[in-house]
């Protein structure tokens, strides 16, 4: 992957004359970067391959973003913002942990089929050696964590388990679990299905506790408080 700036490449002729055209070109490059990551991987992602995927002059990569790394970082944010926006309304309607897990399974399948899991895998691979990409990838994942955290705070508020659960930490654990499962599926699809099924069984146990009567819930809280002090 070519990462550095290329001062030898000047802006394409007429690139700054039309702001609307400039924005259109930026979006083409962002989409081209995501498509290149999906189809060719991080190792073959360069200004040339991205420009070819976007259908624009290679010099425009450097004119609009300065470097390939900066373009990939922007593409990470761009792609994640689009995906989060697509699911935000659905997430806002989730009312239980079992619904959250069902949503996660459905989203996992859609994102895998659309190629977005492959993009995430390539970004995580590149982030190991490219600091800018690491920061952008973490920021992109944080958008998902923020939405999951909102769901958990809302769902756990009425649960006997709520006061014993760190919603912020749990949101990160959930996000990390699904990221890991998405990548793990590439080498062991059956194992991934079994892991998802186990999470669903865990959600059933939580639901069973939440369905207990007031006295039983009080006993559960009392027991958990004693254990947490222990």
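^ structure tokens above, recovered residues below v
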């Amino acid at each position: 992957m070519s990462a550095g700036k290329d001062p030898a490449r000047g802006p394409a002729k007429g690139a700054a004359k039309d702001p609307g055209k400039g924005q259109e070109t930026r979006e083409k490059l962002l989409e081209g970067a995501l498509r290149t990551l999906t189809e060719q991987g991080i190792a073959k992602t360069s200004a040339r391959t991205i420009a070819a995927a976007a259908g624009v002059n290679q010099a425009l990569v450097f004119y609009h973003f300065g470097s390939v790394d900066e373009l990939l970082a922007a593409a990470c944010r761009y792609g994640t913002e689009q995906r989060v926006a697509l699911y935000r309304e659905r997430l806002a309607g989730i009312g239980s942990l079992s619904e959250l897990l069902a949503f996660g399974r459905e989203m996992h399948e859609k994102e895998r089929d659309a190629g977005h899991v492959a993009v995430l895998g390539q970004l995580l691979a590149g982030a190991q050696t490219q600091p800018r990409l690491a920061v952008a990838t973490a920021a992109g994942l944080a958008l998902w964590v923020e939405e999951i955290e909102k769901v958990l705070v809302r769902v756990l508020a009425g649960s006997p388990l709520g006061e014993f659960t760190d919603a912020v930490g749990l949101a990160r654990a959930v996000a990390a679990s699904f990221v890991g499962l998405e990548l793990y599926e590439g080498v062991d699809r059956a194992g991934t299905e079994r892991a998802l099924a186990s999470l669903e069984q865990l959600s059933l146990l939580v639901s069973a506790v939440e369905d207990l009567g007031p006295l039983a819930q009080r006993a559960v809280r009392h027991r958990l408080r004693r254990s947490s002090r222990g």
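Residues 7-14 have pLDDT under 50 and may be disordered.
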